[in-house]
Fold this protein.
Amino acid sequence: DDWQLSENASRIRREFTFPDFNTALTFVNHVGHLAEEMGHHPEICFGWGYASVEIWTHKIGGLHENDFVLAARIDRLPEV
Amino acid sequence: DDWQLSENASRIRREFTFPDFNTALTFVNHVGHLAEEMGHHPEICFGWGYASVEIWTHKIGGLHENDFVLAARIDRLPEV
């Protein structure tokens, strides 16, 4: 599992799996705090045992350096 | 904005808007805690200023009383 480019290369997305709901929720909070810290906010979807994160730069409707910085920081979270 | 039935009536879904990312994240945590308390887990998607919650009963691939109980409890959260 790694970051995947969306069809038109305007977003990156990665899926994560977890042993239960609470671990997914904890991960989502860590991503949320990173996002606030960077002032750069992804879309996060999650449920029991899974989460997905989609990142893009709204202003340009595509990908910018900050998107990859956020992705790299998410990859270093302890749950990943 | 209220709960909407999905096309084949197997899920209910509601969209919520918020003034910023952190308020959406706080709402998501409240929904998460309700879900853990009920042992019934929706799918939640959110980003800056918005969240959506989709509820269904995995075991039957459709809707059951508990789905509507969770929806009603989400409707009573302070942010909504």
